[in-house]
TrEMBL record:
Matches recorded under InterPro entries: Methyltransf_Superfamily, SAM-dependent_MTases_sf
Superkingdom, natural source: Bacteria
Swiss-Prot/TrEMBL GO biological process terms: methylation
Pfam families per UniProt: Methyltransf_23 (PF13489)
Protein name as catalogued: Methyltransferase domain-containing protein
Species the sequence originates in: Flagellimonas taeanensis
Cited CDD domains: AdoMet_MTases (cd02440)
């Protein structure tokens, strides 16, 4: 499978940036991922990401690390950080940017260590793919936590993307799935990725999934646009 995302990041890292990543989704929306934004430093990050990084402590696992911007900030603060991504290109960029500990692996195939803080930023919970895979995903993350460890994640309720009627209800397609499930394809310089599933989880749905798996779910912060930061911990 073409590492479209990784190639785009490698190009930027090596001074070959000429275009952004295009995304196509089952929401019938064409969008772009601006590559320079993925290389931002702490001051350029949204408040929610800044808050999560300030809450991180101990040994940290940064899942879906991308360019490693979050890992770099924490490493510079003296934390022991492991940057994990399934993209070869992402891991190469992280190494070139000076991140000491990197792992190339899908998260569900990783079980080599345990951590005090697990980060899933930029809607990292989306890696679960679909709502019916969320339980397995959460249980696996919980297995990587040390005693008193925490999972910090942000996500969005994408209900706002659907049409609203006069009484405030939303017109959601009745396709049998959860409305936050989206199928994406990425394109960069003529290369197209395989389609992949991504899930945006509203806070109530996340809370219910955590409850079913004996995980405590706390709302830390709400953003201005249906987004939120949550902290998950194991129930005693």
């Amino acid at each position: 499978m073409a590492d479209v995302f990784g190639k785009a990041l490698m190009d930027f890292q090596h001074g070959k940036y000429t275009e952004d990543i295009k995304t196509y989704s089952s929401l019938d929306e064409e969008d772009v991922i601006p590559i320079p934004y993925l290389f931002r430093d702490f001051d350029e990050m949204p408040k929610m990401e800044q808050m999560a990084l300030q809450m991180a402590h101990g040994k940290v696992l940064d899942i879906g690390c991308g360019t490693g911007s979050h890992s770099l900030y924490l490493q510079d603060k003296g934390l022991d950080v492991t940057a994990l991504d399934s993209s070869e290109g992402c891991i190469s960029v992280c190494k070139e940017r000076g991140i000491a500990n990197t792992v190339k692996s899908p998260i569900l195939e990783y079980s080599n260590d345990t951590f005090d803080t697990i980060l899933l930023l930029m809607n990292g919970i989306g890696l679960a793919g679909t709502l019916d895979r969320l339980d397995v995903f959460l249980r696996h993350l919980a297995s990587l936590l040390r005693p008193n460890g925490q999972i910090l994640l942000d996500s969005s309720d994408i209900i706002y993307m659907f049409d609203q009627d006069e009484d405030g209800g939303y017109w959601i397609p009745d396709n049998g799935g959860y409305y936050g499930e989206v199928n994406f394809t990425m394109e960069y310089k003529g290369l197209k990725s395989e389609p992949f599933d991504w899930v945006y989880v509203d806070f109530n749905t996340l809370q219910n999934a955590c409850l079913a798996n004996h995980i405590h779910c706390e709302l830390v912060m709400e953003g201005e646009h249906y987004d939120y930061l949550a902290k998950l911990t194991m129930e005693p």
